[in-house]
Amino acid sequence: MVSPSAVAESKPRFRIVIVYDTFASGPRAKAELEPLVDRLKPEFELETELWEFEEMRHQALREQASREVRDSELLVISAEGSEPLPPAVRDWLGSLLPGQADCLAGLVALSAQPAGPVLEDLRQIAERHGIDFFCNANAVSPPKPSL
Fold this sequence. Notes:
Layout: H1 4-10, E1 13-20, H2 25-40, E2 45-52, H3 59-70, E3 74-79, H4 87-96, E4 106-111, H5 117-128, E5 133-135
């Protein structure tokens, strides 16, 4: 009889790194990724790491986050979307992503806004580095006015 831990050990690992801007956008990203996670669970051992935009301003934390992304399959940037990416995050992505096109399955942008500067920043960064880009812009509908 095969033990459950032996089955888990035989599954390939799939790591997702989420980098978020606000306290609300980290959990929102995890919730939006839940359908993907549910589909991958039977086939993969899943790991999720969370990093806050603010942490990209600190060299040691930025280096640790970079190591985790280089060892991951999916990079998710979750942001409110109304402002451009902060310079520290843009610089971090610019130094991290060269050479990652064959390693990452994609760069995913999750935004509370259906369009905005952060989505355009991320789309351009992904294009520049030859990384597949996915976003939820079409899935987010603007709030309906109350009557």
